[in-house]
Design a protein that fits this description.
By secondary structure, this protein is an alpha+beta fold. The chain has 7 domains: 124 residues, Rossmann fold (3-Layer(aba) Sandwich), CATH 3.40.50.140; 163 residues, Topoisomerase I, domain 3, CATH 2.70.20.10; 114 residues, Topoisomerase I, domain 4 (Orthogonal Bundle), CATH 1.10.290; 59 residues, no CATH class; 56 residues, no CATH class; 55 residues, no CATH class; 59 residues, no CATH class. It has 23 helices and 34 strands. A 6-stranded antiparallel barrel has the order 9-10-13-12-11-14. Helix 5 runs parallel beside helix 17 and helix 9 packs across helix 11. The N and C termini lie far apart (72 Å). Pfam families: Topoisom_bac (PF01131), Toprim (PF01751), Toprim_C_rpt (PF13368). Monomer. It is an enzyme of class 5 (isomerase). It catalyses: ATP-independent breakage of single-stranded DNA, followed by passage and rejoining. Belongs to the type IA topoisomerase family.
Length: 852
């Protein structure tokens, strides 16, 4: 029996730590938080702001096991992560497991290495209640904001919406950037580039120092240049240096992993978590750029042995952020002797961290910058050529050079030929190209993290979940924006002749950048109009500062909550009572056929176009917007085109064919089968031949690939990955199978396993009533339709065994359901207007809400 029980929050971390501790220690995992605010209801006493924590159903068995392990141990070591979330996990464990102060110790470490673990064991402390209170304050405040603001959105916009303090501000940033792009008016100017030759025919590329606003001015310059003798007016060579960036913080790692590796924020954090838990890197949630003396020495030793002493330049960095926790360390390797690891995906991120840390301790790169001025006294402007030569590569040896999307497309790091002042040059080609100014770029995930950090909104642990949440809520997405086309003028001077041409260029296209959805814009506009302070960037940053003060012991968390709620709740009541409903309604114009108004707005099923008013005697007709269309930008002509859908085509193989657009995009309907039209294809352009082609492709994809006991088996790819379908069963195909060439034995194996699982799934089933008692991952439960219900304890306060549940009557199960949901069996009234509206709609259905 182990005298010591160590509790960490992840099984991977437990496995790594167990290697370093002897037989006197047993390491167990809590799998994150063991308790939290309840999923249903607010779970907070608003008079005292006391949270009502509960152990979630899926953690009850685990808590029982931990309690049993605690009884056997003499000392319990709480070793959750070193941040506020980790401190709260330790506090919840201590409280729920009834740990006495004399029988518990709190240990923290920046890295999971033998030295760090043993050092932590030698230097334990108690739970830091200030850190716990900071976490509680964040959790409670965010729960209150979400629970009180969300119902306002249900009432004023549409049911099912939700709001959050940090997430709503992140959406605001994206919406404001999109509006800025829409309102941006590009300005044209002419940029001149010249290629000049010296006597030995070596090329020198140069740019004119000033752009021309007008085409005629650029053309006049070219006319003058025809007869101009170009000379080298000045040559300037000056030394320069480049410094390495500081080691990674959470946000800079997310940004660099995005630009260098193409990883999104969630993926980066998932991989970094694994690297930390397996002992390769220090803790990955940090806003500090500090390195320990041990790390600085380790890096120096590695740099000296690998590159030479001249490359070593030990230093420490200072964090600019006032809120950064300097006691923490930057993200770095735990052992500089480990240059790579086996797992390919992990290794890519590890290499990035390894090289960045190493580079931060290396000497500056030395460069020599050369600037050549080319022109003639008779010309109003002169050309300038720039070149760079790396004299000593320094940190670049380890980290290399990375260009960002803000860098000039032209490569200025080129070597220029040797020239002298007064030397005559001839021009090979001078080009005047019309260029348009560009609006600010849409946010990438990394760019959004950078902006949130600049504004002081959120903390290292919040960036990834915030970005995931705003996408899950469908307030923003990363849909591809098709480019537009415009004409540009290009003039070229070659051999004393000016050639003018009008070219087409694409602009405004984007992919993998954040774009607000229609509902995201409507929700944002409503919140910014009615909850200005909550959505204010400065206010959100001040709330973060309050959490920091609580963590430092400079503010009491319940006093902060009282102050916040005393202003917040009256505002909620006022908005609920007095604010107008919002649906983003935009009047596009008048339908020429009916003379009725055409509106673009949010309806029950999303963005739509409406012809006619809700109050009219003749009911309005509706059409859904297509992918890429937006209620804020769609034109009247584009809106009216949508009412050409659905349209009928000729029958194919005895079944009717039509083309339409629905909630999930454009489709071809063949009989009762809906087949998605490929992305980017205009449904209005789908002809009979194209529709038949789409149907045949679907038939081919759905053709049986095998049989099982005489019945066909088909395959496909869905939102959860590749699957095979047998009768009504969808069976996921794991990666260990070759999906492209499944053998009959593979198919038999997959279906056999699924049937066996299904056979053990039901304890009792009443198909007609859509009620069943099923075996679940955490024990038996009741399912009614798609809803799941708990099985109550027996009268003697013990749990039902599976065998006993086989004899429970349907009436008893129904009682269990109604005890948890009194309206479960209440017949829902169908909207009376639904059927008539369906005849007039094209894709969307008439919303229930009436316009004021």
């Amino acid at each position: 029996m182990s005298k010591n029980l160590v509790i960490v929050e992840s099984p991977a971390k437990a496995k790594t730590i167990q290697k370093y501790l002897g037989k006197d220690f047993e390491v167990k995992s809590s799998f994150g938080h063991i308790r939290d605010l309840p999923k249903k209801g607010m779970g907070i006493d608003l008079a005292t702001f006391s949270p009502d924590y509960e152990v979630s159903a899926d953690k009850k068995k685990l808590v029982t096991e931990l309690k049993a392990a605690v009884k056997k141990a003499e000392m319990v070591w709480l070793a959750s992560d070193e941040d506020r979330e980790g401190e709260a996990i330790a506090w919840h464990l201590a409280d729920e497991l009834k740990l006495k102060p004399e029988n518990r110790k709190r240990i923290v470490f920046h890295e999971i290495t033998k030295n760090a673990i043993l050092k932590a064991i030698e230097n334990p402390r108690d739970i830091d209640q200030n850190l716990v209170n900071a976490q509680q304050a964040r959790r409670v405040l965010d729960r209150i904001v979400g629970f009180e603001m969300s119902p306002v959105l249900w009432k004023k916009i549409k049911p099912g919406l939700s709001a959050g303090r940090v997430q709503s501000v992140a959406v605001r940033l994206i919406v404001e950037r999109e509006k800025e792009i829409r309102e941006f008016v590009p300005k044209a100017s002419f940029k001149l580039d010249g290629i000049f030759l010296n006597k030995t025919e070596q090329e020198i590329s140069a740019k004119l120092k000033k752009d021309f606003e007008k085409e005629e001015d650029a053309e006049k310059f070219l006319e003058k240049a025809k007869t101009t003798e170009f000379k080298v007016l000045n040559v300037e060579t000056r030394p320069g240096t480049r410094s390495a960036s500081a080691p990674f913080t959470t946000s800079t790692l997310q940004q660099e992993a995005s630009s260098r590796l193409g990883y999104n924020v969630t993926n980066t954090m998932r991989l970094a978590q694994r690297l930390y838990e397996e002992g390769y890197i220090t803790y990955m949630r940090t806003d500090s750029v500090n390195l320990s003396q041990e790390a600085i020495e380790g890096a120096k030793k590695q740099i000296t042995s690998e590159y030479g002493p001249e490359y070593s330049s030990p230093r420490n960095y200072t964090t600019k952020s006032a809120s950064a926790q300097e006691a923490h360390e930057a993200i770095r390797p735990t052992d500089f002797a480990v240059k790579s690891i086996g797992d390919v995906q992990l290794n890519r991120l590890y290499q990035l961290i390894y090289k960045r840390t190493l580079a931060s301790q290396m000497a500056n790169a030395k460069i020599e910058k050369t600037v050549i001025e080319i022109g003639n006294a008779s010309l109003p402007q002169h050309f300038e050529a720039q070149g760079e030569v790396i004299i000593f590569d320094g940190f670049l040896k380890a980290y290399g050079i990375v260009k960002t999307e803000d860098d000039d497309e032209e490569n200025n790091e080129k070597l220029l030929p040797k020239v002298r002042v007064g030397e005559i040059l001839s021009y090979k080609k001078i080009t005047a190209s019309e260029k348009f100014t560009r609006p600010s770029a849409r946010y990438t995930e990394a760019g959004l993290v950078k902006k949130l950090e600049e504004l002081g909104i959120g903390r290292p642990s919040t960036y990834a979940p915030t970005i995931q949440t705003i996408q899950n809520r469908e307030y923003v997405d990363k849909r591809e924006i098709d480019p537009q086309t415009r004409e540009v003028v290009k003039m070229s001077l070659i051999k004393d002749k000016i050639k003018k041409e009008v070219l087409e260029e694409k602009f405004g296209g984007d992919k993998n950048k954040f774009v607000p959805t229609d509902i995201g814009e409507v929700v944002n506009d409503f919140l910014t109009d009615n909850f200005k302070e909550i959505l204010d960037y400065g206010f959100t940053a001040r709330v973060e500062e309050s959490f920091d003060e609580i963590a430092n012991g400079d503010q009491k968390w319940k006093e902060m909550m009282t102050n916040f709620y005393s202003k917040f709740h009256p505002r909620i009541e006022d908005v609920e009572e007095n604010a107008d409903r919002a649906n983003g309604d935009r009047l596009l114009g008048v339908d020429p056929k009916t003379g009725k108004n055409v509106h673009a707005r949010i309806g029950r099923f999303g963005a739509m176009i409406q012809i006619g008013e809700t109050e009219d005697e003749e009911k309005p007709i509706f059409a859904s917007l297509m992918s890429g269309q937006n209620i804020a930008t769609i034109s009247l002509a584009e809106a009216l085109e949508l009412f050409k859908l659905p349209f009928e085509l000729n029958e194919f193989e005895g079944q009717g064919v039509s083309v339409g657009v629905g909630r999930f995009g454009p489709y071809v309907k063949w009989g009762e089968t809906f087949i998605s039209i490929p992305k980017g294809e205009d449904p209005l352009s789908v002809s009979q031949a194209r529709a038949e082609e789409i149907i045949n492709e679907k038939k081919k994809a759905d053709a049986p690939i095998a049989t099982y006991k005489g019945d066909p088996v088909t395959k496909g790819t869905g939102r959860f990955g590749p699957f095979i379908k047998y009768k009504d069963l969808f069976i996921n195909v794991p990666k260990k199978y070759n999906f492209d060439s499944l053998s009959q034995s593979d198919i038999n194996e997959l279906i056999d396993a699924k049937l066996e699982k299904e056979a053990n799934r039901y304890i009792q089933q009443w198909e007609k009533e859509k009620i069943s008692i099923e075996n679940g991952r955490w024990g038996p439960f009741v399912k009614f339709g798609k809803a799941m219900f708990k099985i109550p304890k027996k009268k003697d306060d013990t749990k039902y065994e599976a065998e006993e549940l086989k004899d429970v009557s349907l009436d008893e199960v129904k009682k269990w359901i109604t005890d948890q949901d009194k309206n479960a069996f209440v017949e829902k009234k169908k909207p009376a207007a639904k059927k008539p509206a369906a005849k007039k709609t094209t894709a969307a259905k008439k919303p229930a809400a009436k316009k004021k």
